[in-house]
Specification:
about 10% strand, 8 helices, alpha/beta, about 170 residues, cell wall, about 40% helix
């Protein structure tokens, strides 16, 4: 507990928050995240503000075009705080970072989408992770566009793969 107090944390629970943990990670670490992460917005923010989950259902689950001005402002404030937190981390050349504005969560599990879905500074997820992993580039990029993007594909899996292959020739 003395170590936590020395770091300015009065509550041991705070050590579970990533911003209080990342600076102490000694191994190489790659942060891949959306600044408009669907899970975080849906499960940690919206239940407590703006009418709760029912009020946000259409905006978060159906279409970003159904979000009202207040909901977009709340999402933008979430993004602003998230980016400020990342920018306050100590610099580490072994820490890579790919922060995009796609309104999604869990896309890291779909390798097919690494090549086509999210792009930051003209680099795909696969390109950023590859450059970082093989020490070609300490990729630390944040897309600062303050509007969430819908990056899901309406194509079926085979059509999506064909498009992806065509784009990456």
């Amino acid at each position: 507990m003395d170590e936590l107090l020395a770091k300015g944390m009065s509550n041991a629970d705070n050590c579970l928050f990533p911003e209080n943990l990342v600076n102490d990670v000694q191994t190489p670490l790659f942060l891949l995240e959306s600044s408009f992460d669907l899970f975080q917005l849906k499960e940690t923010i919206t239940p407590f503000i703006g009418g709760g989950k029912p009020e946000w259902n259409n905006c978060l689950n159906n279409s970003l075009t159904l979000c009202n001005a207040t909901q977009l402002e709340i999402m933008q404030e979430f993004q602003k705080i998230f980016i400020q937190t990342l920018q306050n981390l100590n610099y580490s050349p072994s820490r890579g970072m790919f922060i995009h504005t796609c309104h999604r969560h869990g896309h890291i599990f779909f390798k097919e989408e690494w090549q086509c879905s999210c792009v930051v500074n003209n680099v795909t997820i696969a390109g950023a992770i590859g450059d970082w992993y093989f020490d070609r580039n300490c990729f630390q990029q944040i897309d600062i566009c303050n509007v969430p993007r819908n990056c899901t594909s309406t194509l079926d899996f085979d059509a999506f793969n064909r498009k992806c292959i065509e784009l990456n020739k």
